[in-house]
Amino acid sequence: MDNDATSKRQSLSGPEQRQASDLPNDGSRSESMTSRVYSQLRDDIITGKLMPGQKLKIEELRRLYDVGTSPIREALSLLTSDHFVERIDQRGFRVTRASAEEFAELLKTRCWLEERALRESIQHGSSNWEEQVILATYRLSRVPRSESPDNFVAIEEWEKRHKIYHMTLLSACGSSILLKYCDQLYDQNVRYRLLAGSTAYPKRDVNAEHGEISDAILARDEELAVKLLVSHYTNTGKFLQECLGD
Amino acid sequence: MDNDATSKRQSLSGPEQRQASDLPNDGSRSESMTSRVYSQLRDDIITGKLMPGQKLKIEELRRLYDVGTSPIREALSLLTSDHFVERIDQRGFRVTRASAEEFAELLKTRCWLEERALRESIQHGSSNWEEQVILATYRLSRVPRSESPDNFVAIEEWEKRHKIYHMTLLSACGSSILLKYCDQLYDQNVRYRLLAGSTAYPKRDVNAEHGEISDAILARDEELAVKLLVSHYTNTGKFLQECLGD
DNA sequence: GCACGAATAAATATCGATATTATCAAGCGG
DNA sequence: CCGCTTGATAATATCGATATTTATTCGTGC
Fold it and tell me: pTM of the predicted model, to two decimals?
């Protein structure tokens, strides 16, 4: 259905995550310049390499990613719709600013949409979906949250599986549109999580929470599942708000 | 908050609606080529002048709107995120295809999101919001639905006020993100409505329905208001489905 | 000393041209 | 007679240059 090459893609772009300016311009066809720049910029914004509010000068990006102006501008236009980049009237682009207020709104909206998606999934999900939930839960549980138990060091594989897990829960909702929105909001949320500086991560047992959610879902206990999922989000949210200096 | 010059704008672009190829390239500054092309293309897609599935050839559009390739491509990229245009891998762009299935999904999702937005608005809306609701209701009621009572002829002013009316109902939901999504889905819906060919419009008294919805809202009767709004949409939806040859 | 304004410098928006890539049809071989 | 390869054609994706627009700086006048 969504065969758009440049549209949403996993924010965690696979094994070979490259620094900006790596890989100047390999001849590997199959991916357009635009979509390459799009994903790299997206990654750099989500991971915080490009800070909120930062000016995105075309000429600078042109040199950084080693492409012409067109792919840069096109990628920025795309990111504009993802709310990762803001276009300022006739003064170019900048990274969307981040604030505690924006985050609060994001979190709230995300809970609303995911609640609906989860309810629909529980009501209509097939047995195949159940199996996917089980698998995603298991796979996520097999990867540690952080490299070190004390100070937090992100693990890319965890990020990847975590997103797959949460999207799988919603995947049977019957609306690719809603799913797309949830996907967007998920990525927005990851950005805030990484921005908050993940040093000293909360002591909650996140894996246990995931397990409970999955159990409620598989028991088709709609109310419990929604309650657990929402508090899963709001708990993390409260913590992030503190880091953001609410 | 959203000072993005090129982002969402009213799908009904004011009094002087221009045909594509009007107004070749006037010197009127203040609006970038990109945003001009964006709104025109958007209008032409919503109103059906550009048909679903139609190939959007750059060179053709370049001549039609009398601009270079960059603004065209940028506008198309923007429209891609609005789901009005699809990008086909390395083969350019085309108008997003329309189908009864897609419409059903759209309608369903729209009901979900608007339900949430309406509930929040009713719970948190201020007295100022109430007044806006009253005003929007009144203004909509002052314009006839069609030029002629028999065969349907669209009235631009009605379209405009109708959108304002429905968005006003949701405007106190407390989430600009959710509001943006509802706005997008509204425009998508208008496209389907116009595509369905509005000849022979249903005999329902749409104005009365709007009045009832507003009354329920002002009485802060959440359940009733939601029920009325949703059936308002699903009724129209059923009718459109028939036209689409469901 | 400070505000205003013109000239300079930076950066954007846009254009037209070029290099790539996909499409289509005709010719060749099976 | 049909499928495959190969070339011609059309269209895209991308580039580098130019024209505008915005930001900044340096004088000048008050």
Answer: 0.87
